[in-house]
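User: My collaborator and I are trying to settle a disagreement about how two of our proteins should look. Neither of us wants to argue from intuition anymore, so we agreed to look at predicted structures for both before our next call. Could you fold the first one, then the second, and keep them clearly separated?

Assistant: That sounds like a sensible way to settle it. I'll keep them separate. The first protein:
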Amino acid sequence: MRRLAVLTVVAGSLLGLPASATARPVAAAPVHYVKTCSPGYVRAVVGGSVKCLHSGQFCSASSQSAYRRYGFVCKPGSDGRNRLSRR
């Protein structure tokens, strides 16, 4: 076991790696996914999930306060269904 550790450090030094990088493997940092929105859309957190908001999209009247926070209002459209529009 010790021989393997020594060989790893020696091999790492030949490759130009520092001894700390070859002695123990380090767990990779977690990757966080960040949702990005297309131009013209607004990134928002509605109901605990990330959404991309745009005028004319269907909306829920129960999330009205979240929509207002991002500059939208949820009101009935010409077809009677709730849709987002800019304030």
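The second protein, kept apart from the first:
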Amino acid sequence: MKDKLAWEKELLGLYVSGHPLEKYRETIVKKDMDIKKARENKKDGDSVVLAIIINAVRMVQTKNK
């Protein structure tokens, strides 16, 4: 299923037969946290756990390397 979803995303640009985070749906819903709520309700130093999918990683070299 993981490979099938990866192919769908690469070829079509979206998931058709499911979603990679589907098996975690119950946990995600139970925690009821999103980026907006985390930014509004958390103080500096608090830990937040979010379920995300990283689509791309880009290496950037700064002047300080």
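Some points you might bring to the call about the second protein. The radius of gyration is 16 Å. The helical segments are 2-12, 25-31, 35-41.
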